[in-house]
Amino acid sequence: MTAPLIVAIDGPAGVGKTTVSKLVARELNLPHIDTGAMYRAIGLAAKRRGIDTRDEAALEKLAEKTKIEFLPGEPARVLLDGEDVTSLIDRPRSAWPQAMSRRSPAFVACWSGFSRSSAGATEACSRGEISEPKSFRDTAQVLLTATPQVRANRRYKELQSKGISVPFETVLTEAITRDVQDSTRAESPLTIDDTYTVIDTSALTIPQVVDKIVKRVLGFLDAISRHR
Question: Which of 8, 84, 93, 209 is most exposed, with minimal Cβ within 10 Å?
Fold first, then answer.
């Protein structure tokens, strides 16, 4: 059976993955896949069954038999075994199962099961985390980049709009430091290979970036159809 399309948008911190992935999902009429909501849905299922959310083995078994779906909308609706739990899991990160990370067996089991029957667009947090499960045969992978100066300037303006005063040099230093950490960490470092379409967003507007990705995905789908 053909695997549904997943659009995985990757890149360093501050490059706009979340904003872009939501707009790409809208343009392609796909649900935006919120991995945080997936964590919380599993957490809710565990709580209902009296499972300790620190028990990774138990969470993995639970994830293997739990069905999570995302329905298009503003925001996307989250179904847990057919039940709309969107309002029940609208909580901060502190509500996530403590034993789950994007590299944990529980998350991989949950994500693999999801990808066998669902499509969507999501922001990946680092190379290998979202795209690794083998069920992602039809995964359009996009890597967004921008110079540290551009990303720092975007972040600086965002902080200013919130009334937060931080020197630009501090924001820039943090961006450069984060880049080094992301590319050198032992667990799933951020790397680039030929499976990615790389888009430098430094001189592009958000609509221009979205347009490039949508065109890339449509070309990706056309190539798939011609080889089947």
Answer: 93
